[in-house]
Amino acid sequence: MDPEPYGINLALQDLFVSQKHLTRILASIALRKNLILQGPPGVGKTFIARRIAWCLIGRKDSKPVEMVQFHQSYAYEDFVQGWRPTETGGFTLKNGVFFEFCERARKCPNTPFIFIIDEINRGNLSRIFGELLMLIEADKRGSEYEIPLTYRVTKERFSVPANVHILGLMNTADRSLAMVDYALRRRFAFETLQPAYHTEKFREYLIEAGVDEAIIDRIKDRISAINERIREDNDLGPGFEIGHSYFVPDDEESPDERWFRTIVDTQIEPLLREYWFDRPETVDELLETLRQ
């Protein structure tokens, strides 16, 4: 069965962003080829990523979509190409996940292919992309700019197809990554997702999910008040706010008072204690207000 058509109107049914913002996001990645979605924890970066991909493709089809997560040990050999040991004791040249993805995209030039990188700022971009840092630029795509790869054994040359789009996801509350690689800044457009507690769509979603309106008001008012404290803190700021995804119930959950308190106890409290590890009295004060 063919994948169902997918567009911005369908995407907006699932998301807590405005049509104007989603339209701008889609225009940014279509033009620049490379986009970073950044925001504090819990704003739905991973959730929206596939919907952006499906909107670009025009159908709900995951075949032209790939997703990986960067980390400190992720390397060029994992991403592009490298020598790997074999069962017989020797080594063989193996293509990485992005190399294979580009080869798939090359066979379907009229279909947008979207490569999603979670935690993109956790990886060493220069180490992972190597010479491909030039090839991912929007104006360096196609066979005209193909170059030899580091581990090539023949005269084979490589290029990034024009129909490949890279969508990176970045958590702005990661203390270990105060500075973003300049190479990443220059090659990617940036869009920011923010908590959606005050949006009508978020309220409507919770009502439809069976959340009592009194609990919805507590979530909106009290988490928003905590976020204001976070924004005003010189050691934190907007990048550390608490996203709305913490309070999006699963289909199997009963979104009642117990559900709310469990989220506060097991997710919100640990996050706040990490933020204000040197000011436990501040956390105790905020939690007391939140639990009332």
The total strand number stands at 9
SSE-based structural type: alpha/beta
Largest sheet composition = 5 strands, parallel
Query: What name does the CATH topology of the largest domain carry?
Result: Rossmann fold
Spatially, the strands of the biggest sheet line up as: 2-5-8-1-9
Q: Beta-strand percentage?
A: 5-15%
User: So, the CATH homologous superfamily of the largest domain?
Assistant: P-loop containing nucleotide triphosphate hydrolases
Q: Report the uncertain regions.
A: none
- Helix and strand string, N-terminal first? HHEHEHEEHEHHEEEHEHHHH
Question: Overall mean pLDDT score?
Answer: 93
Compute the number of structural domains: 2
Second-tier CATH architecture of the largest domain: 3-Layer(aba) Sandwich
Question: How many angstroms separate the termini?
Answer: 51 Å
Radius of gyration: 22 Å
In helices, the fraction of residues equals 40-55%
Basic shape: globular
Count of helix runs: 12
CATH class of the largest domain: Alpha Beta
